[in-house]
Hints:
mainly alpha, elongated, 0% strand, 3 helices
Amino acid sequence: MPDFLSAITxxxxxxxxxxxxxxxxxxxPFWRRMPPAEFYRLHKEVGPSLFAILRRLQRxxxxxxLSPQPSRAKARLKEQSQPLFVWSR
Length: 89
């Protein structure tokens, strides 16, 4: 089960990072080359759908981070013999 959760986490973070990189490396330079009037017209048309996609990715990633998985990781750390930090001995 932890392998499955790790795979899902990796996929979700990859999608989110990919969307942010695409926005920053492709869309922003494209938008900067546009005349202001064209940018504002396009922003009114495309902006809500772009926001909806990024909002869904952010919510799914945030809701997964709030899931009880960190408590399982904490339990595994307690089972290990060595402390996490040197000063916690």
